[in-house]
Amino acid sequence: MKIAHERRALKQLHKERDDINLTPMWQRGDAWSQPKQILLIDSIIRGMDIPKIYFRERVAPDSGYDVVDGQQRLRAIWDFLDGKFSLKHPQSLQPVDGEEISEKSFTALSPKLQARLQNFKVSLAIISDAETHEITLLFARLQLAAPLNSAELRNAIMGPLRNEVDATALMNSFFDNCRISSRRMKHQDYTAHAYALAINGVEKNLKAPELRELYDTSTAIPQADLLVYSQEVDKVLVVMQEINESSNGRITQKWMFCDIFFFVLMAHRDKKSIDVGEFASTYVAFDTRRLDFLKRADELLEGNVTQEDQDLFDYIQAFRIEGGSQANLEARAKVFERLFVECVQ
Predict the structure, then answer these.
(1) What pLDDT, in 10s, does the model give residues 302-334?
(2) Can you give the pLDDT at residue 336?
(3) CA 107, CA 119: separation in Å to the nearest integer?
(4) pTM listed for this prediction
(5) Nearest 10 degrees: Cα torsion 152, 156, 162, 168
(6) In the chain, how long is the greatest CA-to-CA distance?
(7) How far apart are alpha carbons 114 and 11 in whole angstroms?
(8) Nearest Cα to 196, choosing from 251, 241, 131, 151?
(9) Is the CA virtual torsion 151, 153, 154, 159 positive or negative?
(10) Among the four residues 11, 134, 171, 279, which has the most C-beta atoms within 10 Å?
(11) Taking a C-beta distance cutoff of 8 angstroms, is the pair 160, 223 a contact?
(12) What is the DSSP annotation of 99-164?
């Protein structure tokens, strides 16, 4: 891998944008809030330095660049130059050289400040002669000090499991109709948990280090086995979509998603069918009661304690702290076995 360094004006990068791919496979999508974009533009207008941008140079005949690091900065700059937002920040911006900039669009700035923005030079690192795995490793390392979440870092790990997770998250109808946000690869995060449950069951922790290890070692999973897991995940999510529709989109919390997924998965493997209506009504009643007792779970163990009371207490305890630990996954799975026993046939 070779890296060359240079400085390039923003107006030049803006002119070359058709040759710059903001979202190669390892990158996340648009994630910055508008106030954060505005502060970046404000910093540039004031002449402050901004972090280096990393490009990967594509080889002929597909010339141009893939952005390794700096996508959010470039997107904010281009959008402002294109007039897609103004400098309307929750806290009014201070004048620059005596000129008011607060709430102004690019075209409303004075020619002097427009030129200052367009002529601002950023530091670039141009990477060439690099394999994809080297680029994804570099991307992950560059982000370790930045507020990327675990799902976004896993997305940088090229491999068969990463590809299956991304395809399921983008194509399965469950995610088209749920109330789970798609921002910052949250759909991929939930899907990764589903694949981990399909592969390991509740025999291992379901935490960020274990998921990352699963991504790293997925090349060792035979392709035929991975295909079976992918088909299982898709079929279970179809059933979960029906449950979600019958419960008014109530499946939103990650550990509840995981617990329902695992129960339906086990029913599928046992060749049993789910009574969706019965499951949904049982789930809604259980989750309503869970939320009611969430902050007073100890009351469930007062007086004549029923199996239902004990199960809810155990579930709340196993849900509250370290929901992805193996012991808590297993404890909640046992509660669900009793809770939904009448919903399978």
Answers:
(1) 999 999 999 999 999 999 888 999 999 999 999
(2) 97
(3) 15
(4) 0.63
(5) 40
(6) 78
(7) 10
(8) 151
(9) positive
(10) 279
(11) yes
(12) B--TT--TTTS-HHHHHHHHH-EEEEEEEES--HHHHHHHHHHHHTTTT--HHHHHTTS-SHHHHH
- Cα separation, 199 vs 292, in Å, equals 34
Torsion sign, CA atoms 155, 38, 64, 51: negative
Type and span of the H or E element at 332: helix 326-339
The whole-angstrom separation of Cα 277 and Cα 286 is: 14
> C-alpha 198: how far from its chain's center?
20
Q: CA dist 334 to 215, 240, 253, 295, 314, Å?
A: 28, 19, 19, 22, 10
CA angle, residues 251, 186, 245, in degrees to nearest 5: 25
Per-residue pLDDT at 24 exceeds 80: no
Quote the strand ranges of 250-342, DSSP E.
Answer: none
Question: From CA 119, how far away is CA 108, in angstroms rounded?
Answer: 17
**For the residues of 19-76, what is the DSSP string, one character each?**
GEES--TTS--S---HHHHHHHHHHHHTT-----EEEEEPPTTS-SEEEEE-HHHHHH
Pair of tokens at residue 90: 């929750």
Q: What is the pLDDT of residue 133?
A: 64
d(CA 210, CA 213): 5
Q: What is the DSSP string of 200-247?
A: HTTSS--SHHHHHHHHHTGGGS-HHHHHHHHHHHHHHHHHHHHHHHHT
- For the record, the structure tokens of 263 come out as 């129960």
Instruction: Render pLDDT for 145-201 as a digit per residue (tens, 0 to 9).
Output: 555 577 877 876 778 898 899 899 989 999 998 999 988 789 999 999 999 999 999
CA atoms of 243 and 250, how far apart (whole Å) = 9
CB 186 within 8 A of CB 208: no
Tokens of residue 119, six digits: 């002529």
Strands 53-57, 65-69: parallel, antiparallel or unpaired by DSSP?
Answer: antiparallel
Q: What is the model's pLDDT at position 149?
A: 73
Residues in the chain: 345
